[in-house]
Amino acid sequence: MTTLTILPSGTTTEFTAGTSLLQAILDAGVKLVSKCGGEAKCGACHLFVTEGRKGISKMTPAENARLDSLIGIGSKSRLACQVTLLGTEAVTVELLGALSG
Ligand code: FES
């Protein structure tokens, strides 16, 4: 088990390797909208991965294309529905609220 920290609330949760980042956040009881059902189409699950980037899966072309169309993206931007938690190190994410698509 590895730790996921969710900002700005500071909620922490444990996850097993192979868990979707979106699912881990929802399992922790934190609200994160997923309008497209995890298909990389809505952008509503956009967040920043602030720590532990070696502990998450690489970006797919579909995720990259969707992020390019969103407002407020940065070098730490990811779509939670497209990220798999690898379990190799602890991960910290920052939810963006109104910035998300
Ligand atoms: S839930 Fe729609 S892009 Fe992630």
UniProtKB/TrEMBL annotation:
<dbReference type="Pfam" id="PF00111">
    <property type="entry name" value="Fer2"/>
</dbReference>
<dbReference type="InterPro" id="IPR012675">
    <property type="entry name" value="Beta-grasp_dom_sf"/>
</dbReference>
<keyword id="KW-0411">Iron-sulfur</keyword>
<keyword id="KW-0408">Iron</keyword>
<dbReference type="InterPro" id="IPR036010">
    <property type="entry name" value="2Fe-2S_ferredoxin-like_sf"/>
</dbReference>
<keyword id="KW-0479">Metal-binding</keyword>
<feature type="domain" description="2Fe-2S ferredoxin-type">
    <location>
        <begin position="2"/>
        <end position="99"/>
    </location>
</feature>
<comment type="similarity">
    <text>Belongs to the adrenodoxin/putidaredoxin family.</text>
</comment>
<dbReference type="InterPro" id="IPR001055">
    <property type="entry name" value="Adrenodoxin-like"/>
</dbReference>
<dbReference type="InterPro" id="IPR001041">
    <property type="entry name" value="2Fe-2S_ferredoxin-type"/>
</dbReference>
<keyword id="KW-0001">2Fe-2S</keyword>
<protein>
    <recommendedName>
        <fullName>2Fe-2S ferredoxin-type domain-containing protein</fullName>
    </recommendedName>
</protein>
